[in-house]
Amino acid sequence: MICGCNEYLGAENAEGIKYDLFPEILKEEAVARLNELGKLSDANGYLERTFQIPASTRAGNLLRAWMEDAGLKTWVDQMGNVHGLLTSFRSNNVLGFSRRISSGFLLGTFPTHCSTIENEGIFRLRLEVIAFSDEEGVRFQSTFLGSAAIAGILPVSALQCFSGVTVQGALRANSIETTEENLLQLKYEPESVWGYVEVHIEQGPVLENVGLPLGSVKGIAGQTRLKETVKGTQGHAGTVPMNMRQDPMVAAAELIVFLESLCKQPDYYLSYDGQCASLTVESLAGSLICTVGEISTWPSASNVIPGQVTFTIDVRAMDDTGREAIIYEFSNGLLSYHDANAVVCDPGLSTQLKSASYAALRRITGEDTGDVPVLMSGAGHDAMAMSHLTKVGMLFVRCRGGISHSPAEHVSDDDAVLAFLETLL
């Protein structure tokens, strides 16, 4: 039991067992630990903790120490995931919570809450905290290395992904010997897992705009990434007449404008047939997002008409059929392709998260804050990989300006709360 505070929140779980929470102490410790994790970086001025680099190893060791202090059984698996298991339980189910080491958000809070609840002896489920080793895929351009291994969908060929060193070599440099055989053994059996819940900053402005710190997530958008190359005829900028030019930059600009129009008004461009029904087009109106993120020219010079222009396209939507219809309209000149289907969060878990968020907000503010928003995630998350193993749920926490993946990323101390535990007890 965490003590030292006269004011606490009394609560009662589904079995009628009463327990106490001390929100101010929990918040202060969570914020302090987040700040401590935030100092572990291999760069100055911003957070850099990619797969198996020194800062990520130090963060994993720190997290493991916190878990052990809270009484959790800990271990590091062959993909570098840090596990913490609450061993006092009343069933054989496992509830997994995750934050990746590279982001650090909420990594330090779970052991605090686990310690409080374990001492009260109120868990109906085994609680496992997993700090996944890599979600973003920054170092090896292979996303979800940690969670995909747990879900059993990571191909053994991923060990040979190369970026100065192989994934296998990077693990070995940190005294983790990973073979094809023990990599396959990391897979959890679906029947051993009750569910998976992930807490993440929204990475968007919706919660901030409506003035609420929490929102339930209904699903994660499917993603398609394309690299489009437009070829033309290279020439001198000052000597080739306008009516004789084959300028790929102009063609690329027209394609980008077309993509913008296509994604803003999909109902205008897509036809209704067996593959693209009217309901599909309607669903795109609320979730379709298209972005051109990179443009490069060859040769790149101010006085030369380029001979080639390459640009990237990122298309995301909750409706996979509609997303595929958008891609079909934009399929010519495809060079490389990344595709991941949408993930729908479990309705039961989403309802519990929404209810718990509402209860937490009302308890904290003392007011009826109204309905908790239900949002779509347009970003990639470990929950996408874990959905192959078990039902998933997500909770969003508002972030200032909707900014993420930036030194300006910010979540207020008051919003750094855990809102779903009492509903799942």
Automatic annotation (TrEMBL):
GO cellular component: endoplasmic reticulum
The protein's Enzyme Commission number: 3.5.3.9
Pfam families in the record: M20_dimer, Peptidase_M20
Required co-factors: Mn(2+)
Name used for this protein in its record: allantoate deiminase
Subcellular location: Endoplasmic reticulum
GO BP, sorted A to Z: purine nucleobase metabolic process
Gene Ontology terms, MF aspect: allantoate deiminase activity; metal ion binding
UniProt KW Transcription keyword: no
Domain Peptidase M20 dimerisation: 224-327
Signal peptide: none
Chief subcellular location: endoplasmic reticulum
Subunit structure and binding partners: Homodimer.
Family stated for the protein in its record: Belongs to the peptidase M20A family.
Organism listed in the record: Anisodus acutangulus
Catalytic reactions on record: allantoate + H2O + 2 H(+) = (S)-2-ureidoglycine + NH4(+) + CO2
Alphabetical UniProt keywords: Endoplasmic reticulum, Hydrolase, Manganese, Metal-binding, Purine metabolism, Signal
